[in-house]
């Protein structure tokens, strides 16, 4: 594994630097051919059907957009005749962004920033931020949410009450 793969958090592929310009840093990502399990008939195959290049966005590096060009490999199963893509740990199926970028967007809301600032920070569109927020699991139910709001309002009431005189405090 090379140092670029360690920096990008990609452990099952090889990474080569493609180009660096004023706004973007581009990398080539490729893997070695190895037998894969067919998802349809559960037989191992190493017969390659074709290749295609997929463009994937990653976390910005040095305030520049990071673009990964993944050389995706499609296998042919001789048992059932179906074609299937190689699976990767760093990118989910049907997405054009890494899992690191999805986590980066989700963690950017810990700083209590809005959607526009999160999209600027990650160099993506606001629509992508909305899609990421839709996929996150929200574990709070209605009761706990209302309880948190009630506690917050109670703390505000107590802070305001501290600034009042004793005669006005009994009404609030």
UniProtKB/TrEMBL annotation:
Pfam families recorded: DDE_Tnp_ISL3, Zn_ribbon_ISL3
Superkingdom of origin organism: Bacteria
Protein name: Transposase family ISL3 helix-turn-helix domain protein
InterPro entries linked: Transpos_ISL3 (IPR047951), Transposase_DDE (IPR002560), Transposase_Znf (IPR029261)
Coiled-coil boundaries: none
Transposase IS204/IS1001/IS1096/IS1165 zinc-finger domain boundaries: 34-80
Annotated Transposase IS204/IS1001/IS1096/IS1165 DDE domain residues: 128-170
